[in-house]
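Researcher: Here's the sequence for the chain we discussed earlier.
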Amino acid sequence: MQSLYLKKQYLFFSIMLIMLVSMFAQAQEGLVSSDIQFSLHPKYPGPNESVTVRARSYSFDLNTTSVTWLVNGVAVKSGKAISEISITTGSLGSPTTVTMSANPAGLRQYKNTITIWPSTIDVLWYAHTYTHPGYRGKALPVRGSTVTIVALPTLRTSSGTLDTKALFYEWRLENKLLPASSGKGKNTISLPVTQNSLPLRVSVLVHDERSLVSQEKRISITPHIPHILFYELHPLRGPLFQMAIQNIYTLGAGEERQFIASPLFSSGSPRSLNFQWNVDTEKLPPGADKPDILSFSAEQGSSAQKTISLIITNPANIFEEIRKSFRIHVQ
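Model: Thanks. This is the structure I predict for it:
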């Protein structure tokens, strides 16, 4: 009889212990809850940037609930119907911790925390188009050319600056994910420029393996129109690239000059293009070795104007046809 009594007592205390442990676990779980969800505006903050942190919940009404906001452990706002706060992030890689605790009437306490790691990302791009030696500008994209884009993120956590090759890159074109170009360490992408002259709208989202820190960058690349620049080709100094020929070039009677054409921003090199030179209405046969060069001789005792025109076409790009002309004034 006594043995049965002891067994009942043991069973009773065991059940009570299990209930207490369960209640304690539930209380602990209630302190950190996914019932509070955060959103950031802007979504991927940079260093020293103003950010709005907004909270929402489907478990209780934020408009009637007393809440407390803490930033880095310090209470900054409390009261009812406070669903958002504005903060300023720290320096690059310096975390800001934002916590909200809520105490709905008759319900358990809710609490959640978000840590913001400010980061930056630079995006560089270059077009695979032609520029002559010494050209000081940037090669610009044209229809039918290719553009290479490089993402250079700076993401830092408590462990330091993250290796760019260890990060994950999600590339999008016109908001559509490019799976083949995305993935770990894929910080470079090459894209064709469409034939419709519309800008390329490209974005890249970069994050670490656990998505603790992330950053996004959006760029728009506008296609340009290739054009021709004419230069004098000096017999000793070579192309005089420092001064392009404008509308008129003056030449003395009996003199001879050579001119070189630069197909600026063409999607092909000069050797891969077709050059059609014309003097007034006369078509000149293309040069076999150097089709981008024209030799012109002014007759002795002549005085006139000649129109030099050039049409450049690209066999590999049917949309690429460049035209330009200038006049030679012989005196």
